[in-house]
Design brief:
The structure is a homodimer. With about 325 residues, chain A is an alpha/beta fold. Chain A is built from 13 helices and twelve strands. The first copy, chain A, is elongated, with a radius of gyration of 26 Å. Chain A binds a DNA duplex (16 and 16 nucleotides) through α2 and α4.
DNA sequence: TTGAAAGCGCTACCAC
DNA sequence: GTGGTAGCGCTTTCAA
């Protein structure tokens, strides 16, 4: 190949700048870090030399001596999930404003590899944001001391600050909405059973059913993505429910798709709700009734807490966002059946 | 706060392992890097000590001495765009399989800050993948030598390998499809005018119109997201076109939404096409006819090339993916009008 | 085969 | 105010 991929010249080092400016390394370092008072003529010469050479201190060397990398890591279970994409986005935005870089690690839904992945990421930076919904409490507890400073997303611990969503509240609102429409037999297409967020939805369902004996909710095994929703169609039809609560919007969309293939009309034959209100929920056929979650805020707030920790400040209290339900076309009156 | 966020103990250093195993630093390093032959009894002692101490070499220190960080960076203009999300996903998957970490930098559509952002990211890692559709050729040419090794996404250069999409071909296929349906007056809702991918679409349109004098294509200023598509509805209606080519799926979805609000039926009143075939394009109302782009492959192929460069191998030839059009419900016969 | 020591590039302490 | 110099934690010659 004709195009060389090796940088033409190695980047200049601090000694090059010192030599060119005719001063010591220490002086260059001082000038460039704007610390102590330096003779202004000297400072000028240093700046001039640095500029001419295109010098910038090696972040690697600085990090080693300073003990700080100006980088934070985020571990997510699936970068293909709009929720984690939004978290990453919020995180990146807040981190970069504070001069921090972001290292991203995708565990590809493999809870087994998460501890190692998190540790590896953590060792190359100053702190970590962990989105590990399926990691066991024991593993998390064992891991956290080595990960600190760390912030948790969607799970709580007394060993680290956290930001989460009140899934229980969201599911209660969704159930109230469906009940109001006259639905009495409802299916819940569940998510990953090990996840705290699935447990929270279940708890909400139990609480609601206890208060409303006339309502029956049956669980249909699901998952967290399109395919899981699509595959749950059999179970949903078998349940004879008039409405179904899908674990999240992705599952709801997969279900919508499978239902449409079978000629089942939504919401005339069955109502469907999602969860999260991802940007595309408004554009499905029919548009999805769902519980809106401020997903990007999850990322910014997690970053805020981690940055506080890194700055030696006390992080804000743990926060739990209340979803707000958004009624669209996928839910309708049970009597229409 | 009761929960300390400072790691209980500083991580063990190589000297701790050496002391515990009763050997020199050099020996520990050799054993752990599996290089030269070492006495097996000694090696055992070292491994034992390392395990007991939970030792892992500081990536920072290793990077400094080795001159390699095992990290690659990716710069994207907008992490909220499904296309770049997919690129990131593909990249992360390939990189992690090769033992590389990924640093992600979002320029938030600010072309001005991209050079600095890219440089800052590049300095902390071994190579970079650049998605900078709006950066000027001059800036790119100036930047590239300092960024190398680098791989470009969706723009070509003789100074770096690249992977891209043949937008021209995709737009030609879309136009052929619409023309076949009888459409003669078509609107093109454009993207960012500085982007090479927009220029490629324009070139396709010009070529098509040259060959098909009976077809007229008028340009309506657009953008790259939902809002841009929504805002283009006025222009589209004013153009009296029977079909519209949206810059991408996001723009198409925004347009679909605005059209629906105005009571314009798709595809009865006007046909709409997108571009990219993002995962949600199949779920819009109506489902979107679009040109499918193997967007995750863009990321994996970019990573492959960068990893080749880093391994001192010759990267594969530049690749240009041919979109394949996927006809769904948003396009229909022009005669239905 | 093993250990001592140099050095990756930088910052910060300590004399001057 | 400025310049030596130790040292961040590690790998890798070079001797022994």
């Amino acid at each position: 190949m004709t195009r060389s991929q090796i940088p033409a010249t190695k980047p200049p080092r601090i000694s090059d700048v010192a030599a060119r400016a005719g001063v010591s390394l220490s002086t260059v370092s001082r000038v460039l870090n704007g610390s102590t008072t330096v003779d202004s003529a000297m400072a000028d010469r240093v700046h001039e030399a640095a500029l001419a050479l295109g010098y910038a201190a090696s972040p690697l060397a600085r990090s080693l001596v300073l003990g700080a990398t100006q980088t934070i890591a985020v571990v997510v279970p699936d970068l293909g999930n709009p929720v984690f994409q939004a978290v990453l986005r919020g995180l990146t935005s807040t981190a970069s404003r504070a001069g921090y870089h972001v290292l991203v690690a995708d565990s590809f839904e493999s809870a087994d590899e998460e501890p190692e992945l998190a540790m590896a990421a953590r060792r190359r930076c100053d702190g970590i944001v962990l989105c590990a919904p399926r990691m066991s409490d024991e593993t998390l507890a064992r891991l956290l001391p080595a990960l600190r400073p760390a912030v948790l997303v969607n799970r709580s611990s007394d060993a680290a600050p956290s930001v989460s969503v009140d899934y229980r509240s969201g599911i209660l609102q969704l159930l109230a909405h469906l009940t109001e429409l006259g639905h009495r037999t409802i299916s819940y297409v569940s998510g990953a059973s090990a996840a705290e967020s699935d447990a929270a939805r279940r708890a909400g369902i139990r609480a609601f059913v206890d208060d409303h004996p006339e309502v029956t909710v049956r669980e249909v095994p699901g998952g967290v993505d399109f395919a899981a929703g699509h595959g749950a169609a059999d179970g949903v039809q078998a349940s004879e429910a008039t409405a179904v609560l899908a674990f999240n919007d992705l599952v709801a969309m997969g279900l919508l798709s499978a239902l449409s293939e079978r000629g089942v009309r939504v919401p005339q034959d069955v109502s469907v709700t999602g969860f999260d209100d991802i940007p595309f929920a408004a554009y499905t056929t029919p548009p999805l009734t769902t519980a809106s979650v401020p997903v990007e805020a999850l990322g910014t707030q997690a970053a805020d807490r981690l940055l506080a920790l890194l700055a030696g400040r006390a992080p804000d209290e743990d926060v739990s966002f209340e979803p707000v339900i958004t009624v669209r076309g996928s839910t309708g009156d049970a009597l229409q059946r």
